[in-house]
Structures are given as C-alpha cells and as structure tokens.
TrEMBL record, chain A:
GO CC term, one of those recorded: plasma membrane
Domain MrpA C-terminal/MbhD: 610-672
Record bears the keyword Cell membrane: yes
Topology of this chain in the membrane: Multi-pass membrane protein
Protein's recorded name: Na(+) H(+) antiporter subunit A
Alphabetically ordered keywords of this record: Antiport, Cell membrane, Ion transport, Membrane, Transmembrane, Transmembrane helix, Transport
Coiled-coil segments: none
Subcellular location: Cell membrane; Membrane
Amino acid sequence: MTPPATLMVLLPLVLALLAAPAAMLAGVYRPRLAAPVGTAFAALAFSATALAWWKGGGAVNVAWAPTWDLRFHVALDGLAALYALLATGVGFLVLVYSSRYLPLHLGHGDRPESEGTRFYGHMLLFMGAMVGLAMAQDLVLLFLFWDLTAIASYYLIAFDRHDAEARAAALMALLVTGVTAVLLLIGALILYSAYGTFSVPELAELVEPGPLLNAAGLLIAVAALAKSAQVPLHFWLPRAMAAPTPVSAYLHSAAMVAAGVLLLGRVYPLLQESRILLDTLLVVGLLSMAVGGVLALTQDVLKQLLAYSTISQYGYVVFLYGLGGEYGAVGAAFYVIAHALAKCALFLTAGAVTEETGEDRLSELGGLRKPLPLLAAASGAASAGLAALPLTIGFFKDELLFGAALARGPLFAGAAVLGAALTLAYAWRFWAGIFLGERRDGASNPPAALVWPVVALGGLVLLGGLWVEPFARLAEAAGEVIYDAPASIEPAYHLDLRPENLMALATFVLGALLIFSRPVWVGAARGVAWVGGKVGPERLYESSIEGLNRFSDRIHRAEVRDLRSRVAAILLPAGVLVGLGILVTPTDGVYRAGEVGWHDVPLLLALVAVTLATLASTLTRRHVTLALVFSSAGYVLAALYAFLGAPDVALVAVLIETLVTLLFIATLKLIPYKVLHRQAELPLRLTRRKVYISVVAGAFAFAVAWGTLSQPAAESSTAEELIALAPEAHAKDVVTVILADFRGLDTLGEITVVALVLLGVVTLLRGGRLR
Amino acid sequence: MILAISVVIAVVFASGAFLVLQRDLLRVVVGIVLISNSAILFIIAAGLSRGSAPIYPIDEGAVSDPLVQAMALTALVIGSSVAALLLAVVYRLYVSHGSIDIEEIFRMEMREAEELESMNKTELDPEEEEVADERKLEKEEPR
C-alpha cells in the first residue's frame, strides 16, 4: 500500500483519537474553547472518514507485539465506515447541541464552566474509541477500544458526580459491560489457542463449526449483548439515564449500545458458522423486543421511555442477526443507521423540552406544538422514522425486517409485526404526549443550538425516506462485511400487495389499536414492569453487589481489627507458604550439622550469650531493663560478626545498636513513668498461647535457616570477582567498595529511605506538622 | 556450626515474635528489632565462604564473603530507621491516646468509630462529615 493511501485510512482514527486531548487542552487554556475545538475535530473526523470511504477505504496491518502474535490491524471497510460515520456524524450534532445545553445544565447546579472541559474530553474519548472499535480487525485491539468505551461511559454517566444515583448508575454500567468484556477476551484467547491468530478475517477462513466455536462465539456474543443492553443484561441502560441528555443521546444512538451490535457484525462471519449461536441471538433479540417494547409503554419519564425503546430496537438488530442470510445482515446494518438518526433526535428533543419546561414526565407535559413548532415537526419526523411510517427511512428498516422474517417462517413474521406495532405505539405515545393535547405550562423560545441538531436529524430521517440510495449503499457495504459475501438489497416503495406491504399495513392497524386501547392493557403492562423490578436481573445484580460488599467488609474487619490480627494476616499465610515449601522440597541428606573446631569456641560462647540475652528480653518487665538486655544481645551479635570475618558489619552494628538503645531510652523519657509502669505491672498470664505461637514461628525460622545454610557452597561466586575487582576501584576494603561503587545505587536508595524516615519521625514528633 | 547458628537464629526470631505479640507497644518495637537482628545474622551466616576479613592486603587462604556483608550493612541501617520510625509512632500514639497499650488504644478507636458512625447516620450531609472529621482530629491532640 502506498503511503498516501495508508495515511488516508489512518487519518479518521488519528483525528478521532486526537479530538479528546485537543479539546481538553483548549479547555484548560479557556473553558469556553473546549466545545468549538471538540466539535471541529468531530467534523474533521467525519469528513476524513467520508473521504477515505469514498476513495475506496483500505487497511493498515503492521506488527504490534509480534511475540504474542498481536497486530495493529485496522481497516476502513463497509462496516467500519458505517459505524465511524455514525459515531463522528451523530457525535458532531450532539456536540453542537451540548455547546448550548451544557452551560444550562451546569448552571442549574451552580457548577463552574470548567467542568464542561471534562465532559467534552470524555465525549470525544468515546468518539475516538468508537472509531477505533469500528476499524479494528484484531480481536485484542478490538478489546482495548471496547474497554476504552466502557471507561469513557463510566465518566460520562457519572458526570453529575454529586448525584449518588448517577454514581451508582455509572458503576452498574461499568460492571455489567466491563465484566462481560472479559468474556470477549476469553473468547478471543480460545480462538487464538485453536487457530493461532487474533485477526477476524483470518479466523473467518479458518473456523469450523463445533463446540470450540460455540463456546468462543457465545462468550463474545454475551459481551456484545451486554453492551447492547439486551435481555437479561438490559437493566443498566434505563439507570444510565441519570447522565446529562447529550450523553444519553450519544451513548444510546450511535455509541455505547451500537458498539455491541458492531461487535456482533464484526464477528458475524464466525458466528454464522454455528446454528446454535444464531438461534441464541434470535431468542435474545425477540425477548428484548418484547421486554423493551412493553416496558416502554409503561414509562412516564421521557428518557426512560426512550431507554426501553433502545433496548427493544437493538433487540430487532439482534433478531435480524439471528435470522441471518443476506437480508438479515444488510437489514441489521440498515436498521442501525435508521435507528441512530431517529433515536438521537428523540433524545435531544426530550432534553430540549425538559430544559424549556422543567418537566421530564409525559404526565406533566403536553400541547407544546404551539410554542415549539419547529421542534415538534422535527421530532415528529424522527418519531415517524422510529415508527416506520412511509416517507421516512424507518419504512425501509421495517421492510427489510419483514423480508428477513418472512424468509424464516410465518411465526417469525408474526413476531416482527407485533414488535413493530409496539414500536409504533410508544413512538406515538412519546410524540403525542409532548406535543399534542392541552397545554400545561409555558415554554419560551428555545436556543437555536437546542433545536437545529434535532431538525438536522429529522431532516435526514425524511431524506432517507425519499432518497434511500446512499443509506442503502452504505448498509450494503457493511452487510457484505457482516455476511462475508456479496449482498444487495433494493429498498423501494412498491404499490402492490406484496407480503412486506401487507405486514406493514398490519403493523399500522395493530399499532393504532394498541394506542386506542391503552386503558385496557396499561394495568397489565404496569404489572409486568412491577414484577420485573421485583424479581428481574437487576435485583440479582444488586444483591450480588451487596453480598460482595458485605464479604469484603467481613474480611476487612477480620484482617485489620487490631494490630495482632493484622500481623497474623501477613505472617500466617507466609508461614503456610514456607511450610509448604519445606514440605515439597526434597530434604534427604541435605541437612548438615557442620564441623566445630577449637577455633570456634569464642564464636560458640558468643552464640550462647546472644541466646541467653534474647531469652531474657522476653522475661523482663521493666522497660529500662528491657533496653539493657536487648541492646546487650545486639552488642554480642556485633562481636559475633567480628568473629565471622566481617569487621565492617561489626562496627556498624555497634553504632546502630547504640543508636537504637539511645532512641529507646529517649522514648522512655518522653512517656510518663505512670504509663510505662502500668505496662510493666501487667500480669504475665495468658501467655501460653503466645509462647506456643512463638515456638512455632521459631521452628519455622529454624527449618528455613538450617535448610538454607546446609546447602553446599557454590564453587565460584560473584564474591571472588568482586574481591578481584576492588583494587581497580582504588579501594582496600571490598565491602566498602561494594556499597559505594559496585552497588552505589542501592546505597543511594538506602540513604533516601533514611531521609524519608527522618522526615517521618520529625513530623510525628511535632504532631503532624513539619514546621 | 551450621546447626548452632541456625538454632540461635531461631531463638532470636522466636523471642522477637513473642515480644511482637505483647500488648505493650514498646515491647512490640523491641520484638521487631530482634526479628531484624535474626535476619541479619541469617544473611551473614549465608555467606558462601568464611575466613579473614575481605580487606587488602588479603593473605592466602579463605576470605569471608563480602557480598553478604554489604547486604547486612544495608539491612542494619534500614532496620534502625524502621525502629526509629516505630518509636516515633509509639510516642505519637501515647500523645493522642494517653496509652501505649494496644488493646486500650484499639478499644478507644472502636468507640470513636462507633460515635462517628452514629453521627453519620443522623447527619448525612457531606459538609457535616468534614466537620466531624475535624472534630475528631482536634480530640486526638490534647496539647
């Protein structure tokens, strides 16, 4: 590949990844600048993606960590182009919207403007991660970008960090998507162990149906389904509505949840080898469609309604993947485009309406078509797109869905119609609830930046209904990557009685029936929602989090309750490990007693003295006696070192022993006699357990010391080299030259430790203050 | 000889462990000093050769391993620093709690933690918590 072509492919990714640091830097310089800089980068990344895609795309494949077979393999194929264009394009509009929305949002909480910088940084980080995720062809690279999106979403959902609800929601999103992300990595490793590559295109050629593929595919699919908020891992999405509206709009249309179906599309060439996996997707998709659709009809809060709608809409996409085939693959891609445009517009509408009226519940809103005509029209177009009315891009998404479902069988066609009717019902409920009916309260003229992004998205939804060609071509290109074979679709209006049209008609009738019969079923739907809240997976999540918390508290309490248990928590496992080490090491004939000659007598006498002094230190009661006894043990040890041919150590040991003894005596002087006396008067009972523990500890020390010292000495050692090298370092004392020269850095570290300890001591003695 | 040194290492270590288990914090410090002494003796004894001091001019015959001596020196200095720091901590604990008995101090801290917890239950406002923390800090320092 020629360098310009490589540049062309990398440019969108580089621009998208640079956006976050650029906006952060601008924001640090002047908070006002973060939004325009970030928006400009999003626009640039979008243009670069479009241009590179128009020029034919391409791939970059270079070694990254060759020893682990990791490659930096990114490609701008159809699938990548689709999701990168969505992430940057929708991102651009959302950022324009945020530039007006965020100051208002921060204003409500009396927060400084500089907090906005953080917001733009994380939004753009998300955008960069999405572009990288879309382009990555290597499963490990994909996993990296995957986790980056989870981290960015954590910060975005908890943007209102003073709100405990938002923090809990962010943690839930992070745990649900982050824990399942590990499954993706495990799946990738399983595939690697079997086929020796992480590259998706290479794997697609290598894999064979079988239990291995089923296991790996299932793990990857669970990660993807959790990210796309599919039942039963859907509960984090409605909670994540605690985020500011632009975040919800972005995460739930073109970014976070889209990442899940993007991953499914990327690994679809592997998944479609296995019938079981496709059937699993089918079931999960249908369940999500049903659960999301029914719960969306019960919600009162605008954003909650939209969140359940997202669950159900991505259920469609997963359902389409499950149906498989040409129509399923292309349909899934097309569905994502249509849904992203419409859903983003609806979220932004909800944000604008709430900002204007201060209400976020359908029951408190109504009649806003008069004060907000432009917003009403634009979001009407978006709702129609979601509900799949003719003349919108949504009509074609349902046409493809019906086509794919019909090819599978009448039962699936029926399910598709039912799901689409639910969509129609809640789309109507959302739009009509806000804009029709009696007017509740006043809404002034909203800022242009809050309306025009909605108008742009609504316009795109309508444009797609009139001129579907560019969207269909993009979806086709993506579908070919998903399907791993040429695919083509011809979405168009046909004025005849073909089954797709009949199904659409049935959907409209059924949808209208659902809307008008609301009083009949609303109680039952609320009941379902209530039962789901009581026994649903969210409860399981909560109780497991609580359980883990309690478990960690219990361990924490047991471990750090007091000093003794703290010491025991370290020593006991260490002792067990040492014991195991001694047990498994072959010891036959290893232990040696060593020879004792006449010249060793002074040494033995010193050893006896040390033993007596230390044993005495355990029996003394008064502190001054204790100081004398333990320092005498130290001095005898120093003499012992001298006998062992270590005069340097002996000298230093004498100095150190003097120092520690003086410090000890000084401490005794600082503490009143009364306090010390109370300790000295403590009765010597209850010591049997302590003696026992000490004896065991000593036995361990004895086993380790004897075992180590018995090992025969090596023939040659570094010591000989060091001794030989000493004259070259212009020194006579080898130990000194080791400390000052050969291992000088160690000594520097040691000096640093002493300096830090001095600082610590001074601070402690002065009551927490250095000065 | 190996056996004799091993026994002494074990005795010093066991005495240190016994002292570490005491209630009296000063004894705990002495215990730690003893344990570090036993470690240093172990390092020196682990030298691969024994003989005259490794200082030039070196006579014919065995020379003591200089490497373990350098390590022992480092360990000695660090050990004494740790002892100094521990003594300062003990003094600090005496100042804040009026005692050098680990069990008494533990009881006081538990009582304080319970008080704080009950305070938190009634006043969940984070600013109040900070005030409570400050109050606790003030209480620690009867100057």
